[in-house]
Amino acid sequence: RSVYDDQPNAHQRFMEKLDACIRNHDREIEKMCNFHHQGFVDAITELLKVRADAEKLKVQVTDTNRRLQDAGKEVIAQTEEIIRCRVQQRNITTVVEKLQLCLPVLEMYSKLKEQMNVKRYYSALKTMEQLENLYLPRVSQYRFCQIMIENLPKLREEIKEISMSDLKDFLESIRKHSDKIGETAMKQKQNNVNYGRNMHLGKSRIWESKNEMTLKRTFEEEDEHEEEVLTAQDLVDFSPVYRCLHIYSVLGDGEIFENYYRKQRRKQARLVLQPQSSMHETVEGYRRYFSQIVGFFVVEDHILHVTQGLVTRTYTDELWNMALSKIIAVLRTHSSYCSDPDLVLELKNLIVVFADTLQGYGFPVNRLFDLLFEIRDQYNETLLKKWSGLFRDIFEADNYSPIPVANEEEYKIVISKFPFQDPELDKQCFPKKLPMSQSVPQIYIQVKEFIYASLKFSESLHRSSTEIDDMLRKSTNLLLTRTLSSCLQNLIKKPHIGLTELVQIIINTTHLEQACKYLEDFITNITSVSQVTVHTARLYGLSTFKDARHGAEGEIYTKLNQKIDEFIQIADYDWTMSESDGRASGYLMDLINFLRSTFQVFTHLPGKVAQTACMSACQHLSTSLMQMLLDSELKQISMGAIQQFNLDVIQCELFASSEPVPGFQGDTLQLAFIDLRQVRHYLLFFSFSNYVSNVSVSFGFCFSPSSMKDTSKKNNIFAQFRKNDRDKQKLIETVVKQLRSLVNGMSQHT
C-alpha cells in the first residue's frame, strides 16, 4: 500500500531494490547451496520422498486457492467500488472547493444582472468594480470568467447609454414643466410676501375706501394660496441627473457629462428666452414667459445646491447675466407694443414677482427694477393716452352751462366730487346754479383716478415714500401740462365751440386752477410726504389753466371779430343814394344787439377779459367800417350815403358810450371809434362845402374817396370845379394829407 501511496516512481525503485535483494539472496543461496550441497542432496532425497505428499498438498492448495479466489471475487468488487467511490469523493471535494470560489462570482454577476434589470445602474457599477478587483481574479482560469470579463465593458457602455437617455428624458421633462415649476415658485413667493399690503394699509381713508374691494380680493387670493404649494422637487424627479452624474463620475467621465449638461441647458435657456410673437397681446403670454424662465433657474439653483461640480455659481451667474440681457431686450421690445395701461400694470406686477422670486434664489435683479422705471414712463404714456380720450369724452358730453342744484342733497353731491367753496353762493336759496359746468368735477375726479392709477405702478418697487411722491407729482404734472392742456387747446379751437362755451371754459379753468392745491393735499395724504420737503415737486396746473384761459380769451376775441365780419359782409350800402334812411343800417343794429347780448354773458368773466373783448370788438368794427369806406373799388359816394354812414357811426358811438361792459374809465371805449369819427367829420365837411358852393346842384356832385388816396398823379375833382378858389384848394390838399397819414396810422395799428 505504501508503494502505491508513496511518491511517483516509488514502484520502480522498489522493483530495482527488490531485484538487487534477489540477486544477493541468490548469491547467498548459491553459497549456502554450495555449502550445504550435501544437505541439499539429502533434502532432494527427502523431497522425493515427500513428492507424493506434495502432490496431494498441491491438489489441496489448488483447490483451496480456487475456493479462495471464488470467495475473494466479491471482496475485490467491493474493494474496486470503494476505490472508485473514494476517487469520486476526492473529485467532489475538489469541485466543492472550486465552486466555493466561483459561487461568489456568480452571485455577484447575478446581482449585477438584477441591478441592471431594476435600473440601479450606480449600484451595478459598484458591483462591476468588486467583480473586477476582488472576485474574478480568483477564478480567472475558467472560461466563463473570461466571458464575464469581456461583457463588463459592454455593460458599462450600456449603462452610460441608458443613463444618458434618462438624462435626455429628464431635460425634456423639465423643459415641458419649467412653466409649472416657475409658476409654483412665484406663487410661493407671493405667499411669503404679501405684495402691496403694507402700501395699502399705509394709505389714507380715501385710498382705503377706494381699494376696499381690491384688498378683499387680494386677501381672498392669499387665503387660497395658504394651501400647501408644491416645490420644484415635488414636480420634477431629479434622480436621472443624480444617477447620470454618479455613473459618469464612477466611469471617470464626469467632465464630459458636465460639459454635455451645461451645453444642453444653454440651448434650453435660449429656447426659454425666445418669446412668442403675440406675447404682448395678453397678460397670460407674459406670465407663461416669466414662469418658464423662473422654472429654468429654479432647476439650476436646485442642481447647484444638491450636486457637487455639475454646475457652479460662476456658471449660473454667467447664464443669468446672459438671460437677463435677453429678458430686458424682450421686455423693452414687447412692452412698447402695449397700449393698454391695465396690461402694462399687470406686466409690472409680473416683473416684480419675477424679480423677487429669482432674488430669493440669489440672482441679482437690480437691472430689472431699473427696467421698471423705463416701463413706468411707458405706463404713464399709456395712461396719458387713455386719459386724453376720457377728457375728450367729458368735454364732448359737457353742455357748458352752470350746474343747477335744486336742493341741499344735490349740492352736497357736487361738492363731494369737487372742492368748491363760495360763501356768497352758500347764502343763496335753492334752487341755484354753481358757476362751473358739469365737466369740472368730472375732470377733477379723473385727475384723482389718474393719480390712483399712477400710484398702482409704484407699489412693490421697494422705493421710499419721497420717491413715490415725486413720481406721482411728475406724472400728474404731465397729465396737466400736456394731456389736459392739449385737450383744452383742441377744444377751444373746435369750430362748434361758440362764445358762450368759451366763456364757460374760462370759468371752468379758473375753478380747476383753484382746485390744484387740493390735488397736492390729496397726493400728500396718499404718500405721507409733507409739501414743505425740499425735494417735493409742485403741480404745474396753475400755468396749464392760465395758458388754456389765455387761449380761450384769444379765441373769444377771434370769434367776436369773425362774427363782426359776418355782419359786415351782409352790409349793403348804396353809395349813390340821394338821401339817407333817417336811421342806422339794419345790419349794424343787429350787430350791436348781438354784441350787447354777448357782453351780458361776459358778466361771469374776469373784468379785464370782458373789457379787452369789448375793446377788441369795437376796434375791429371801427377798422372794418374804415376799410369799407376806403375800399379801392369804391369810386364815388353820394351825399345821402355819407349821411347814412354818419348815422351808423353815431350808432356805434352810442353803443360805446352805453358802457356794454362795466369798468371802462371815461370815454376809453369811445376812443375805438375816434379815427372813424375824424373821417366822418372830413366827409361831412367836404359834402357841406360842396353843397354851399352849389356845385352838387349844378353838376350832380358825387364825392370820390379814391381821389383822397392819390392827388399827385391826377387832378383832384374839387379842383376841376373851383379853379379860382386857391384857398379852398390848399385846404383840400391839407385834408388829403391828413387822411393819408390817418389811414397809414390805422393800418399800422391794425
Automatic annotation (TrEMBL):
Residues 17-186 form the Exocyst complex component EXOC6/Sec15 N-terminal domain. Pfam families: EXOC6_Sec15_N (PF20651), Sec15_C (PF04091). It comes from the Eukaryota. Keywords: Exocytosis, Transport. Residues 368-694 form the Exocyst complex subunit EXOC6/Sec15 C-terminal domain. One of its GO terms (biological process) is vesicle tethering involved in exocytosis. InterPro entries: EXOC6/Sec15, EXOC6/Sec15_C, EXOC6/Sec15_C_dom1, EXOC6_Sec15_N, EXOC6PINT-1/Sec15/Tip20_C_dom2. One of its GO terms (cellular component) is exocyst. Belongs to the SEC15 family. This is Exocyst complex component 6. It comes from Struthio camelus australis.
